[in-house]
């Protein structure tokens, strides 16, 4: 199924029958010592919600921590006292997105980060509303990693400032967080991306912006422009499991 769209004055075509799934299923990865994902049959008296156990249907309860169990999309409610729901803030689900591959830079303290310089080098002169960052090296270990206590790579604050100034409203990355695992609760990258600060008026926040973490972009996916479909379940939380899907764009 071919569709055509116009972006930045240029015409593109994509095939909706050729999706590229960049989500990691819940339970395959873990971070921040989160409770493990679990799906178990509902039990009530003699009823066990499993066809294997003799029930007419499978009827399962889920235990999940969206931030710690797999690909998830979050809104500014992740860091605000007032409850904010990602489904209230994300009202559009298709975006033109730029995939970029960025090499990590090792710091004197041993941390590995995405620097502003590396990001600028990887990005074209103009960016669409969404960016998808694939860190290098890119290994399939990202699909099954337990990041808890490993001090995973993260974004330099100056790199986040670059993205904000470039107009990025939807940031997707293959790391557990845009911030350092242990940073004394500062979460500087999150606050900067959403413009959330103690002295900032709510009207100045970038409340329609999202961060999607723990994606995986296979090596065969080339850097370039894609149509992004950011799919969310209707769960009332600041962050929910998500299924970002890409479609390659071809100039016509």
Task: Write up this protein.
The chain is mainly beta and 252 residues long. Helix content is 12%, strand content 32%. It is built from 5 helices and 19 strands. It has helices spanning 66-69, 86-89, 116-122, 157-165, 188-194, and strands at residues 2-7, 10-15, 20-21, 38-41, 43-44, 47-48, 60-63, 72-74, 94-103, 105-106, 112-114, 130-136, 154-155, 170-173, 210-213, 224-231, 239-241, 243-248, 250-251. The strands form 5 sheets. The chain has a 9-stranded mixed β-sheet with strand order 3-18-16-9-12-14-15-8-17. A 3-stranded antiparallel β-sheet has the order 1-2-19, with no helix packed on it. A 3-stranded mixed β-sheet has the order 10-11-13. A hairpin with a 2-residue loop joins β1 (2-7) and β2. It starts with a strand and ends with a strand.
Layout of helices and strands, plus pairs?
Elements: E1 2-7, E2 10-15, E3 20-21, E4 38-41, E5 43-44, E6 47-48, E7 60-63, H1 66-69, E8 72-74, H2 86-89, E9 94-103, E10 105-106, E11 112-114, H3 116-122, E12 130-136, E13 154-155, H4 157-165, E14 170-173, H5 188-194, E15 210-213, E16 224-231, E17 239-241, E18 243-248, E19 250-251
Parallel strand pairs: 9-12, 11-13, 12-14, 14-15
Antiparallel strand pairs: 1-2, 2-19, 3-18, 4-7, 5-6, 8-15, 8-17, 9-16, 10-11, 16-18
Helix pairs in contact: 3-4, 4-5
Arithmetic mean pLDDT: 96
Helix content: 10-25%
The largest sheet, given as strand count, sense and whether it forms a barrel, is: 9 strands, mixed
Q: Give, in order, the helices and strands.
A: EEEEEEEHEHEEEHEEHEHEEEEE
Helical element count? 5
Q: What is the rounded distance between the termini?
A: 16 Å
Total count of strands: 19
Q: In angstroms, what is the radius of gyration?
A: 19 Å
Strand content: 25-35%
Helix-and-strand structural type:
mainly beta
Give the overall shape. Answer: globular
Uncertain runs: none
This entry's quaternary arrangement is: single chain
Order of the strands making up the biggest sheet:
3-18-16-9-12-14-15-8-17
């Amino acid at each position: 199924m071919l569709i055509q769209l116009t972006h930045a004055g240029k015409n593109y075509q994509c095939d909706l029958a050729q999706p590229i799934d960049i989500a990691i299923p819940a339970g395959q990865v873990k971070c921040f010592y989160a409770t493990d994902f679990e799906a178990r049959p509902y039990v009530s008296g003699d009823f066990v919600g499993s066809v294997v156990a003799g029930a007419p249907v499978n009827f399962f309860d889920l235990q999940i921590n969206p931030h710690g169990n797999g690909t998830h999309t979050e809104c500014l409610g992740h860091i605000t006292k007032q409850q904010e729901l990602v489904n209230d803030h994300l009202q559009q689900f298709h975006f033109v997105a730029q995939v970029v591959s960025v090499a990590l830079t090792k710091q004197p303290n041993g941390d590995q980060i995405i620097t502003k310089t590396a990001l600028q080098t990887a990005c074209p002169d103009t960016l669409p509303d969404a960016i998808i960052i694939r860190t290098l090296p890119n290994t399939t270990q990202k699909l099954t990693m337990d990041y808890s206590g490993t001090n995973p790579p993260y974004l330099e604050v100056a790199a986040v400032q670059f993205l904000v100034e470039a107009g990025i409203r939807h940031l997707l990355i293959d790391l557990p967080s845009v911030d350092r695992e242990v940073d004394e609760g500062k979460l500087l990258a999150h606050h900067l991306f959403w413009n959330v600060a103690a002295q900032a008026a709510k009207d100045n926040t970038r409340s329609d912006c999202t961060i999607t973490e723990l994606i995986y972009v296979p090596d065969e996916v080339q850097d370039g422009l894609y149509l992004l479909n950011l799919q969310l379940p209707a769960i009332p939380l600041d962050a929910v499991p998500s299924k970002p899907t890409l479609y390659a764009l071809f100039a016509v």
